[in-house]
Design goal:
Elements (H helix, E strand, L loop, with lengths): L13 H14 L5 E2 L11 H12 L13 H15 L9 E4 L2 H12 L5 E6 L3 H9 L3 E6 L10 H7 L11 E5 L12 H14 L1 E6 L23 E6 L12 E5 L1 H11 L8 H10 L4 H24 L3 E2 L7 E5 L7 H12 L1 E2 L1 E2 L10 E5 L4 H13 L1 H7 L2
Helix pairs in contact: 2-9, 3-9, 4-5, 4-8, 10-12
This protein binds pyridoxal-5'-phosphate.
The site of pyridoxal-5'-phosphate (PLP) has 13 residues, from helix 4.
Length: 398
């Protein structure tokens, strides 16, 4: 069949094809260790699973749910934002639960983008911003992030990319931002967030802040909505996939001014219905988890990260030790070409998969990204495999 014009330039998601290739290699008996994707391998807290199963037993749990999500979940999200981000949200009007934050990116694009509207995208950045903006008909404009500027946007460059105002009162562009930043692990600072909101006010932007990593390897979770006046310009997306180990459950949220919630709901309520009630109630339970939950989780990730640093040393990659989130982002030595070349060498030589940084935009070409969602023993085994693979060992092993 002929696919729609809107699919032109949209390929299958990188991991969707790469995981198939890895599957094929496994069928040939290769037993690939994947250090690619950021899907937590640890389970959610047992109280969360218990809530799910108790609620699923109830006869009245199985019907369609409200498009705006269960009041119990919305209240829990409001409590979570207050406790950890010091942001007050009205649970009835300023919160919209999502079936994962990824779908929220698409809903937001479909709600606000007309053909040819400028969408400012981080390069490197999460590929879904680009494909969702393209599917919605936006004009894709990259802004560049670099290590020398702490992976923060250069506001001067950014100001040159915003088109002039055409319709009074309409946003001039949509700006996607994401801190802690994936894939670089860069944490936000208060002054950067303040600057971002002033910039959004001056240039009349709608800022979409994607915030799924604020609890991982970070003790000071921050929300862009904590900046005074941010609600006039910002929609924030958040997720339970990473910090609550619930990636497969598909629970996320969108928070912002009540007008934004209603605008996006106009689109989303035509696409799907509320989530399975037991999932929502169990998610509410997960949002009540105390500090120890996050501490214990981060202890595991810290240990894994130390091993990943060793693996990267072996590959002679350079990296910052202060990264937040579920990955380590590292620069490939010039002698190895780029991240794609190194990723292929390690995959086909040592049966270990690491993600080439170029899939996040060409500014990531000379980088690789390694996931921490893999038990420590597997990372150790990856190190051993890489040591044994002579193609890597000789040129890269110092
Ligand atoms: C930056 C970023 N945003 C959003 C998502 C999607 O998260 P969710 O599972 O909530 O859809 C991911 C998942 O990898 C991500 O890395």
């Amino acid at each position: 069949m002929q696919t729609s014009n809107r699919l032109e330039g949209i390929g299958e998601y990188y991991f969707s094809t790469k995981l198939r290739e890895i599957d094929d290699l496994n069928k040939q008996g290769k037993n690939i260790i994947s250090l690619g994707i950021g899907s937590p391998d640890l389970p959610p807290h047992h109280s969360v699973i218990e809530t799910l199963s108790l609620e699923a037993e109830k006869a009245n749990s199985h019907g369609y749910q409200s498009y705006k999500g269960s009041p119990v979940l919305r209240k829990a999200i409001a409590g979570w934002y207050q406790k950890w981000y010091n942001v007050s949200l009205n649970p009835d009007t300023e919160i919209l639960p999502l079936i994962g934050s990824k779908e929220g990116i698409m809903h937001i694009c479909m709600t606000y983008i007309n053909d040819g509207d400028t969408v400012l995208l981080p390069n490197p950045g999460y590929p879904t911003y680009r494909s969702a903006a393209r599917l919605a008909g936006g004009k894709l404009v990259d802004y560049h992030l670099e290590a020398g500027k702490n992976w923060f946007p250069d506001f001067e460059e950014l100001s040159g990319l915003v088109p002039p105002s055409t319709v009074t009162g309409r946003q001039r562009a949509i700006l996607f931002v994401n801190y802690p930043h994936m894939p670089t692990g860069q944490l936000p600072t208060k002054s950067f967030f303040d600057q971002l909101i002033s910039f959004a006010r001056e240039y009349e932007l709608l800022v979409i802040h994607d915030n799924p990593y604020s609890f991982i390897l970070n003790e000071n979770p921050m929300s862009l909505l904590s900046v005074p006046g941010a609600r006039d310009h910002v929609i924030e997306l958040n997720s339970m996939s990473k910090s609550q180990n619930m990636a497969g459950w598909r629970v996320g949220m969108m928070v912002g001014a009540k007008e934004r919630i209603n605008e996006v709901l106009r689109f989303k309520s035509n696409m799907d219905s509320g989530m399975f009630l037991p999932v929502q109630l169990a998610a509410a339970k997960a949002l009540e988890l105390p500090l120890e939950w996050y501490r214990e989780l981060n202890e595991v990730y810290k240990k894994r990260r130390t091993r990943v640093f060793e693996l990267l040393d072996l590959l002679r990659c350079e990296y910052s030790r202060d990264q937040a989130g579920l990955f380590v982002w590292a620069k490939v030595p010039a002698s190895e070409g780029n991240g794609y070349a190194l990723s292929d060498q390690v995959l086909y030589g040592a049966n270990v998969f690491i993600t080439p940084g170029g899939i996040f935009g060409d500014a990531g070409d000379s980088y690789v990204r390694i996931s921490l969602c893999c038990p420590e023993e597997k990372i150790t085994e990856s190190i051993e495999r890489i040591k044994q693979f002579s193609g890597i060992k000789k040129p890269l092993h110092v």
